[in-house]
Amino acid sequence: MNIKITGSGSYIPTETISNVDFAKHSFLNDDGTPFPYPNDVVAEKFLEITGIRERKYVSDDLCTSDIAFIAAKKAIEDAKIDPETLDYIILAHNFGDVKKGAIQSDILPSLATRVKHHLRIKNPKCVAYDILFGCPGWVEGVIQAYAFIKAGMAKKCLVIGAETLSRVVDIHDRDSMIYSDGAGATIVEATEEEGGMLAHETATFTYDEAYYLFFGNSFNKDHDPDVRYIKMHGRKIYEFALSQVPKAMAACIEKSGVDISKVKKVLIHQANEKMDEAIIHRFFKQYKQTPPEGVMPMSIHKLGNSSVATVPTLFDLMIKGQLENQTLEKGDVIVFASVGSGMNINAIVYQM
User: Shortest CA distance to 39 belongs to which of 15, 21, 16?
Assistant: First the structure.
């Protein structure tokens, strides 16, 4: 028995926000003082570092559970399965359903429960739950699905990563330009086919790193101090990721027994183009190699950083032939990898 992804789906939001759209924002330093550079310079430097030209936001009528449902429905259709046969629905997110203009997260009932309800699944033995694991949430959800199936507790799982970060950003913080919305979903199931999950690795760093990403006040000191927004210590995250992610990826490769030369693609969390490039170079440097051309597909340029949704969305786009000059073939060995709040890191070695 092997454990494979047999179907995938994604939801790309309809609202396109370009860097130019931030021209009227009043960016501030964390102490509330005006940022010393004009917004066109901010946008130029931002593009240079992150690679993000535009990002996607959901329309006002949608929440995270809505787009999770859309991606899930597509994955179920792609896998050609009866949703009543699902044993688990695992939904990774970080902020729940936040309605447009609201200041409160809604996770009652859980978002996974809402998706199961929208799918009209009657089977009570289909267990639905949420996972809060930062940006690596979808990857960790796949690892959990693998564990359930390996243990004989399940045969078929739906794993979703969905987020609407546009609802929790501080418009006075330049880091708000990084974040976006989106959803990706996959069916993970037992199969007689060759390949599938070969190894996995997960780590949580909290001693010094726990609050590198956190909820904090607006940089605008006139804003309600009881309203919080997503904040990060960008430099610390960058250094942490460069230090730890390549090690985790290498540990996963070692567990799998796969030679590094066999790795065709690395699907890494779309956080920051320069950071991802540095991670991939350090990863291959451990094997005294340089990254093969095209080994790291990127979607961040047009989709931004949608947290838990970046990796499953990237995978779905490649599977469906919607990412320029990037394809996946049967038998290809790929690495999924992510890093995010917690601070959590994980990786999967997977054969198509």
Answer: 21
